[in-house]
Write a structure and sequence with these properties.
202 residues, alpha+beta, minor pseudopilin epsh fold, six-stranded antiparallel β-sheet, four-stranded antiparallel β-sheet, 1 helix, 32% strand, transmembrane helix, Pilin-like, N_methyl_site
């Protein structure tokens, strides 16, 4: 009977070296692919939420006309963006949270109810070149987005009923979705004012 021969130390070393080379190629490729998939998913979900926001506002004529000096109508619908700014009250963690909310001014105090939510720990948002719709420089507060009757994009921070950093935009603004850990890959969600409520992902 022929005696079976096992691997020699030299052969094992060669096999291990080959596996190490394959892993050094496969692991970075997998990480890069995962980052791209996360960015694509969040960008597409965010764009869909903006479209849904405009459809709700337009169908119910819930455009926001409020300003602190003259009063006006506060919309029922907003997108609230927490870009790793506000710690969770229980865990203390900070995540990306993009929420479609319904505002009830008749409640005492007024309430903001989350209708839909996108959460991520792997991607973040940043303003595209020439855009300033996100207010990350305002401290640990959320950025709110809604629409005015003329199709302009309305942005403010803090809360619906107690607004700061209020600005409206008559030209399109871009928000980039990028990996939190870096990597160069990005998708840009463009909020257009013509036609009102239209969104592109590029």
């Amino acid at each position: 009977m022929k005696k079976l021969k096992g691997f020699t130390l030299q052969e094992l070393a060669i096999v291990i070296a080959i596996l190490a080379i394959l892993l050094s190629i496969a692991v970075p490729n997998y990480i890069a692919m995962k980052k791209r998939a996360d960015v694509d998913s969040i960008a597409n979900q965010f764009a869909a939420m903006i479209r849904e926001l405009y459809e709700k506002i337009d169908s119910e004529m819930e455009y926001d006309t409020y300003n602190s000096s003259a009063g006006g109508h506060m919309s029922k619908y907003y997108i609230r963006i927490d870009n790793y700014k506000i710690p969770d009250p229980i865990s203390g963690e900070r995540n990306l949270k993009i929420q479609l909310i319904k505002f009830d001014a008749s409640a005492s105090p007024a309430t903001e109810t989350v209708i839909k939510e996108i959460v991520s720990k792997t991607v973040k948002l940043q303003n595209a070149s020439g855009s300033s719709i996100l207010m990350d420089s305002a401290g640990n507060v959320a950025t709110y987005i809604t629409f005015k009757p003329d199709g302009k994009i309305l942005r403010f921070t803090d809360r619906v009923a107690a607004r700061n950093n209020v600005e409206d935009f008559s030209v399109r603004n871009g928000i980039e979705v990028v990996p939190k850990s870096g990597g160069g890959y990005k998708k840009t969600v463009y909020l257009n004012t013509v036609p009102p409520g239209s969104v592109e992902v590029k």
